[in-house]
Amino acid sequence: MKTICSSGGRFPVLALAAFVLVLSLVPSLGAEEYVNLEESVKRGLEVNDAILAAQYRLQSAEAQRKAALGDFGPRVTVGYGYTRSERGETQLRLTETGVAAVTGSRDLWSLNLNVNQPLFTGFRLLNAYQRARISSEVTAEVLRQTRLELILFIQTNFLELLKAREDVRSAEDSLARLRSQLRVSQAFYDVGLQPRLDVLQAESDVAQAEQVLLLAQNSVATQQARLNTLLDWPVDRATEYVGTLEYFPMEVSLEDALEAARQNRPSLGIARMSVDIARRDADIVRGTFYPQVGANFDYFRFGDDPAMRRGDLPDNDEWRVGAALQWEIFNSFSDYHRHRGAVYDISRLERELSQEQYQVSFEVNANYLGVVSARERIGAARTGVVAAREGYRMAEARYKAQVGTITEVLDAQARLTSSEA
What is the pTM of this model? Predict the structure, then answer.
C-alpha cells in the first residue's frame, strides 16, 4: 500500500486502488488553466460542500460539549411579578398600646432571585458531559472520513481522466494504423493485386475505430466535467489537468497494511466511540435510580410599588439558604426497562464493531491481492505490447510483400490495440 497523509490523518487502506500508478506532477503554469493532482485535492478540500457541512457539524458538536460542561455550574433565575388582591395585605405590628393590625396596599410587587447548584445527580451530569465529548470526537472522525473519501474520489477521477486520455491516444494510433492499412489495400485493389473484399473489410475496421475514438473522447470530456464539479468550477470550464501515469512499486506488506487500517480507519474509530456513547447513555438512565441533591439560595423582596418600597409594612425583604433531596423510588419500572434497552444497544454496537473489523480486514486483503495481481499483469502487459508491435510489423510487411492476407494484418492490429489498452 502506498500511504498518503493528509491533515486529517493517514489515507484509508482503500487507497490501495491507486497501487502502481503515481502521478508525475507537472508544475502548475497558471491557476486558471493548468491544475495538477495536488492542487486539485487542495482545492477540493477547501470548497467541497460535503467538507464544509462536516465542519459545521463538528462546530455544533463542540458547542453541545461546552453546553454539557456548563450544566455542572449554578443556575441563576430572577423572577419579577405583580399581584392585585381583593383586600390589602394585613400584618400585625407591636405598638405602644399593644398589638395592632395594619392593612397595606392591595398592590403587591415582588422580586425573587434564586441560585441553584446541583450537588449530586446520580452521575447523570458527568455521563452526559462524557457523552457529549465522545460525540464531538465522533464528529471529528466523520469529518476526517469525509476528507479522506473526497481525496480518494478526486484522485480516482483524476487518474481516470489520465487513463481516458491514454485511451484516446491508443484509439488515435489504432485509427491511424487502420487508415494506413486501408490506403495500402485500396492501392493494391486499384492495380488488381487484391480483391474488393479486402478494401471493404479495412473500411469497416476504420469505421469501428472511429467510433471507439469518439467514445474515448467523450469519456475524457465526462471526466473533465466531473472533476470541475468536484472542485466547484463551471462544468464547461476549460481546465487543463496535467500529469502522466507511471509505474510505482508498492512497498508495504499485508501485515503493515492491516495494522495501519486498524489504527487509522475512521469507520473503526467511529464504531468504537459509538459503543462508548451507548455506555454513557446506559449510565445516564441508571442515574435516575439515585437520589438528586441540590442546594438553593433565594432572595425575596416585596413592595406596594414597582420599586418595591414597602410603605408602612416592615420586613419587605428576606433570604433563604437550603438543600433538598429528591428521590423517585417507584415509576412502574419504566427507568428499569429503559436501562435494559440501553444495555442491549451496547451489545448491538459491540457486534457491529466486530463486523466492521472483519469487513475492514477483508477490504484490505482484497485490495492488497488486487495490487499484487495488477503488478504482475503490468509486467506481462509490457511484454505483450512489445510482442504485439512486432507481430503487427511483420504482418504488415507480409501483406505488402503479397505473402500475407488482410485478415492477418487486422488481427495483428486488434492484438496491438488490446495490448496497449
Answer: 0.72
